Amino acid sequence: MAQKILGVEMSGKNIVIAIAFMVATYLAIRVVGMFALVLTSGFLGFVVSAVVGFLLFAAYMRGR
Question: How confident is the model at residue 5 (pLDDT cuts 50, 70, 90)?
Answer without folding.
Answer: confident
